[in-house]
Amino acid sequence: MKSPSQVPAVGGVETSYNEADISSYKMSNFLQHWQLDVKPFEATWDTRFYYRSPQHQEALDRLIYLASEKTMNLGMLTGEIGCGKTITTAILAQSLDPCAYIVVSCTNSGFSFDELLQYILWQLDPEATHMPESKFGRCEHLKKLCESAASRGRHVIVLLDEAQDLPEDTLRQLGWLTNFNGEGRPLLTLLLIGQPPLRRLVNNNQAIQQRIGLRFHLLPLAQEATANYVTHRLKAAGHSDGSLFDEDALIHLHHFSRGIPREINRTAKLCMEHAWASGDERITAQILHDVACDLYRQDNLISSAAVLASAT
């Protein structure tokens, strides 16, 4: 098949296509080859692709309980890089009734308390023309906004992602917000989401540790769950049964990715592109091996370059 830049126009005169045309053509050809509607392993937080492994479902159930209880002050979700923490909390926010909850999501938490407080206030009161200048005034304003929400039957939940980057003093001051209460019930719930260092950060602050009413740690997927994860994403992308990877390829994929969803996505995406470019109809163990070896070599080159750069 000719590439777009070689396809004759009407009358047999060849025409040129810009890069966007070529990219669109390649995308269409890729999807047609694999009988898909969309690419299945892109680095997006598209909730259609969320795989409810037993532990991810348990994490989600616990977080929904944390939200519905409304009395637990603080929750903490941790996990290794790429294990699905952010998309799990996105599913949580999507699952909560907007008539009963106001969800504020902070995608990065490595800021001062004042900066995070200001962001939360603007999210809760986007039409405000003026914010109190003092820290005390802003805390009181936040309390009033939470009281107003509670009077309308809504509970405020603040999601703080990348919470392992919280400065110690910021974490300490966030504890102040858990003191907000109306008629003996907390007015808001904070959920800390982060990598394993978050647990050490919290353990070093006894006041915060004692306030955490629920915690959960996400682990990498087991081998069977990795295979089910791949099948789920392929079916969500439009494939009829999701069986494009040979069984041996899935076993190798699990071992190479260590069961980490983000690594599964990266490797599976490259395998599909490699097989498509080669005209293969399935992903075999050999294709997986070739891609894995190339990734390993490239990652080592990047690591070596970083070491050399730091030494100069």
Automatic annotation (TrEMBL):
What name appears for this protein in its UniProt entry? General secretion pathway protein A
Q: Which InterPro entries match?
A: AAA+_ATPase, AAA_22, ExeA_AAA_ATPase_DNA-bind, P-loop_NTPase
SUPFAM superfamilies in the record, alphabetically? P-loop containing nucleoside triphosphate hydrolases
Where does the AAA+ ATPase domain start and stop, copy by copy? 71-218
Which GO-annotated molecular functions does the record name? ATP hydrolysis activity
From what superkingdom does this record's organism come?
Answer: Bacteria
